[in-house]
Amino acid sequence: MDLPQLLLVGLVLLLGVLGVMVPGVPGTWLVWAGVLWWALHERSGPAWTLLVAATALLLVVQVVKWLLPPRRLRGTAANRRMAVYAGTGAVLGFVLIPVIGSVPGFVGGIYLCERRRLGTHGEAWSSVRAVMRAVGTSVLVELVACLCVTAAWLTTALTPP
Question: Model pTM greater than 0.90?
Fold first, then answer.
């Protein structure tokens, strides 16, 4: 696969990761489609292995999301700014401490947003708990899975044959 096409696949994966945090955008499926596109053009053992593993992981995530309690956005302060803070925190946490760092990064991003908005630690922490109960868990599960698939793709794509 040539460099421009590889960059386009990376862009699709990035849009998928960002789309996880936007309601109505099929972020998980964009990530899967990017890996599928890459595997169909790459046609190597590692590419097919990654596609199968990504498919399995993303299907398990869909089942887990379905089993989690439904989203209750009313009464929480969840908005686009919070999604940006939470997503940025998760990505930074994922980079600083691979995989497990995305969880404290996600929660820390929500806390930082709420601390700036509300001013005190107690109110901000109370709001973080409410947001995490309402939407945070399902978004976090999906985001971590998409980040893992993207990191695996990046590692596989950049490893010389």
Answer: no
Distances, alpha carbon 157 to alpha carbons 61, 89, 146, in Å: 23, 25, 16
Phi, psi of 44, rounded to the nearest 5 degrees:
-125, 165
Residue located via tokens 């990017």: 34
Percent of the chain with pLDDT over 70: 93
Mean pLDDT score, 118-143? 85
- Per-residue pLDDT, averaged over 96-113, amounts to 88
φ/ψ of residue 120, rounded to 5 = -110, 155
CA 37/CA 102 separation, integer angstroms: 26
**Are the C-beta atoms of 42 and 5 separated by less than 8 Å?**
no
The single residue listed with the structure tokens 């498919």 is: 55
11 three-class SS? helix
